[in-house]
Amino acid sequence: MTRPAVVVRGACPDDLPALMLMWDELREMGSRFERVIPIADEAGVLGRLEAVSRDPDSCALVAVVDDEVAGMAVLTATAYAPLFEQRAVHAHYLHVRDGFRRRGVGKALLTAAVSFADDVGAEHVITSVLPQMRDTQRFYARLGFGPVVVRRSVPVSALRRRLTGAPAPSTADHLVARRRSLRRLRAAMNRAAD
Asked: 3-state class of 158 per DSSP?
């Protein structure tokens, strides 16, 4: 029995339900590893698709198997890193849905990334992977990807607290502040009733 062919094409507004589903899958994986991935809304995704379609250095792709969207990737061509002349294609959000893994979907998306790199004159393809995703790490390693950097992220508010040395507000602090607000509100309501 032969595998169904994987077709990679540009993402379009009709793909929105599948894109939202895959974004939710990415968020679930991220939360399992205590990562914070922003919530996507349909209007935001449609807006990004429109912006990407107008940018010659970007493209949003979906991989389709038997008329069903099986995977996605967003490609951007930029400098390899700040202060480098070499261009690279950054493969963002490359994701293959459960049930479609180990069927050539990821390789098909990366083949499209290579074609895009040729089109824009890029010499490298770069992607980011959560360190705990061992199967994904092995997939990329088998294809020749090597580690370059470890990227770290922090909310601005948390970094500001750390830089200024201010202690992080505790749950008790939040509770005390809420109780004070409620007391003030009740007092104001009582004064208004008198």
From this structure: helix
Q: Residue 131 has which token pair?
A: 């360190």
> Residue 53: which residues within 8 A CB-CB, separation 6 or more?
10, 59, 60
Sketch the domain layout of the chain as residue ranges.
6-153, 159-193
User: Which among 98, 121, 77 has a CA at the least distance from the CA of 24?
Assistant: 98
Q: In this predicted model, what pLDDT tens digit does every residue of 22-72 receive, in sequence order? A: 888 877 776 544 445 566 778 888 888 888 889 999 999 999 999 999 999
CA separation, residue 7 to residues 49, 52, 102, 150 (Å): 19, 20, 15, 32
CA angle at residue 39 from 78 to 153, to 5 degrees? 55
Q: Are 104 and 69 in contact (CB under 8 A)?
A: no
Identify the bridge partners of residue 87 per DSSP, sorted by sequence position: 79
Residue by residue, DSSP assigns 50-85 as HHHHH-TTEEEEEEEETTEEEEEEEEEEEESSTT--
| CATH fold label, 6-153 | Aminopeptidase (3.40.630)
Which helix (H) or strand (E) segment holds residue 10: the answer is strand 6-10
Give the residue carrying structure tokens 């293959």. 96
Strand order in the sheet with 68-79: 6-10, 58-65, 68-79, 87-96, 124-127
Helices 42-54 + 16-32 axis angle, to 10: 110
